[in-house]
Structure formats: structure tokens, C-alpha cells
Design goal:
With 477 residues, the protein is an alpha+beta fold. The chain has twelve helices and eleven strands. The chain has three domains: 2-110, Alpha-Beta Plaits (2-Layer Sandwich), CATH 3.30.70.1050; 150-246, Chitinase A, domain 3 (Roll); 263-476, Trigger factor, C-terminal domain (Trigger factor, domain 2, Orthogonal Bundle), CATH 1.10.3120.10. It has helices at residues 21-36, 51-81, 134-147, 252-257, 263-297, 304-324, 326-333, 338-365, 372-383, 390-399, 401-423, 433-437; strands at 2-9, 12-19, 91-96, 103-110, 124-129, 150-153, 165-174, 177-190, 212-218, 232-246, 425-430. Strands 6, 7, 8, 9 and 10 form a five-stranded antiparallel sheet that branches. A hairpin with a 2-residue loop joins strand 1 (2-9) and strand 2 (12-19). The chain is elongated.
Amino acid sequence: MQVTETKTEGLKRDFKIVVPATDIENRITARLEQLSQTLRIPGFRPGKVPVSLLRKRYGSSVMGEVLERTVGETTAKAMTEHGVRPAMQPKVEITSFEEGKDLEYTMAVEVLPEIAPVDFSKIELERLTVDVEDSEIDEVMQRMAEANKVSEPVAGERAAAKGDVVVIDFVGKVDDKEFPGGKADGYHLDLGSGSFIPGFEDQLVGAKAGDHVAVSVAFPKEYGAADLAGKDAVFDVDVKEVRSTKPATIDDDFAKKAGLENLDGLKKAIRDEHEREFKAISRLRLKRALLDALAEMYDFAVPDSLVEAELNSIWAQFEEQRKQDPDAAKKEYGDKSDDDIKAEFRAIAERRIRLGLVLAEVGQTNKIQVTQDDINRAVVAEARRYPGQEQKVIEYYKKNPEAMDSLRAPLIEDRVVDFMLEMAKLTERKVTREELLRDPDEDEAGKAAAPAKDETKKKPAKKASAKKDKGTESEKA
């Protein structure tokens, strides 16, 4: 095999590869001899079929098979010999081949850039910490008490008000005919909850126990039942009882209903959940800051093929979002042309690819890996997102290696991030809950501030700038 490099331009390499005719012929003969051991042809014993006969019958199909395999093997060998690390599959074009003559083809490939190591100990970062205040725990318990409020009959003949519960019997009619699902007895309706057709609850405000109310409403045009959508209806409602409501009492019994042993256990569970949430957000902020620092330290050319693939992915998502909510896209980008928007997205794509290559290089250089147990835990966590279908989700990942890889990649990325954070200089700063949750791209006055946000989801509808988009593999989850 003869390999000649014909072009070197940036990260692009072109090669001319020649495979001798004798090599091709040897491969074809070897394949035919292999077939002769298994093919059954009338008049010949197994393994005794002449290769010349097989060549006549199967020569053309074997030729195609051999050429495909030869190109694949020689392409891989050529890249290995020339130290080529391809960014994507090389493009191959056969330029000359006839039976009995050399095989000639060209290979165009874009290589991965050389990434020089840097001293991560020079990176200075700030980890934000938040103390969970007792008042926050009280607020959560109060919301829980409101969500689990209790009711009791009102004294006297007080009229129903918003926030009360009315116990009603009702029958609904359209064109003076009852319709399926429009009847109930002893129904407890929370006035102001918005759980019934718009206007229904308002017409019961002021009613008293024993009242009969004819409630006239119109079904929304987008109502789920097509035979009722957009139609006028009248509900004959008998008010059986009016009940006042109050939040549930926050005590040990309240905690037990929430699945905890006592009130102290409930408070601890709420505090632990808040601490986990704050730590997760703090880590995202820290990771964003790390990526910002890496972006400042690295400035190398990235393969156009990878950028184009990433740009196409971002653009496809943007077009889908624009289709679903054109007003939001208009508000975000104004009268910008698609070319201008794509230019912004290209900056995002280049940054993502560059940071992704850096993280991958650090991971490979330092042999950072994840265990099968790590991946199994990720599969279980993913399955829990689909209650009742956990086993189906687990089986799906077991049978789909590509899906399994989609879980492995962000795990490795997090390990690489942890590796770099261990070497970086970290200081801690206590902040308020509001400071931690505030959009880090804005200061208190709403003006642009130093970027510190880790956008873990790919959202091109956001203002697209190289400073605001900090995603790597975790964005693509």
C-alpha cells in the first residue's frame, strides 16, 4: 500500500492511497476459497468446488465485498501510520479501479487539534454556599398545610365566599339534554380553585345551603370532548352545604401524613432537601465558572465538521421552538435574519466543541473513567423518572448501546470536572438564597454581569452569544 499526503490545510488532510492489484487479487482468492468450504453446488462435494467456477458465478459480488473491506482496512492503517486522529469519518472516493489493476482512491479527513496541557492549579474559582434558614422551612410547611387544608360546616346561614367549599348536586344540560359526565351528587367544590369550567364557580359565590342555582356557562372551544367544545350549557345545582376552610394543623400527625415520624423529622427532611438543591445549583454555578476559565485558557481551531454538526443540531431545535412559539422567537431576536441568528449559534457551537474536546482530552490523558455501577445507577435514576414503566426503561437501555452511551458521557464529564476542581484554587463565599438563584448573567439592577451560568440544556431561544452559552456534553442530555 502506498500512501501520499496531498494536502495539509489547517485541520484538513487529503491523502492518495494506492493498493496493489496483487493485494486485491489475493484478497479475492482468499475469499473465494473461504466460500468454497461452505457453498453447495450440484456435482461437487463440499469443499471441492473449483475456485475458477466460483469466480465466474460470484466474482462480481465478491469483488464489491473485497473492495469495501479493503478500503476500510487500508484507510484505518493509513491514518494510524500517519498519526491521524479523525474528528469524523473520513470521506473516501475511488478514483481508479479495474480488474487486474491497482486500486486508487482519495481520503479527505479532518483531524482533531493538538491540545496543550495547562496548569489547572492556576484557575481561581468561588464556590457559593447558602444556609437554610428556619423561615424557609416554615414557609414550606405552611404551603403544605395550605395544600392539605381542612374544612368544616359554616355556622348559621352564611353565604359561600371564595375559599369556601360547597357541597353540591348538579346536572348539566346542553340544548336541554343531559350529557355524559355532567352529573354528580355530594361533590365538594373549592370555590376559586378554577377546577370547573370558567364561570361555574363564580356563580356559586353568594349561594347558601339549600339554594338552587342555574349556572350558565360555555364550554371552551378547545374543550377535550369534541361534542361539547364551544357549546352553551346550563347546570342545575343544589347547594347542600357550605364549608369554611383552614390550613391543616402543623403537628406530629401532620408530619405522619407526609410519611415522617414526627414534626422534627419533617423539618429535617425539608432542610435536607433544600441543602441538596442549593448544593446542586452551587455546583452548576461552579462548573459554569470553570468552563469560562477554560474558554479563556484555550483558543485553538476546531474541526469544521464537528461545528457544522453541532450547529445543525442547535438550529433544528431553534426552528422547532420558533414553530411552537413564534412570538417568543420574535421577541428574542427581533428582525434579525436567519443568517445573523446562525452566526450567533455558530459561536455557541464552536465554544461547545472546543470545551468538549478539552474535557475529552483531559479525561483520556488522565484515564478518567466510570464504572459499570455508576452507569447502572444512572439507568435506575432515569427509570425513576417514569413511574410505572421503570422495568421497560431499564430494558430499553440494556438493549440499546447508544442510549447507554448517552448516560455514560455526562458521567465522565462530571468526573473530569471534579478532577479539575480538585486542582483549582477554590474559595467559599456565603450568599443568600436569592443571590444563589439569581440569573448570574444579570446583576441586581438587571444589567449584564460577568457570566457564571451553566446552561445544562441546549436552549437556542436564549440570547445566543459565546459568553452566555457554556454547555458541553451535559447540555445535550
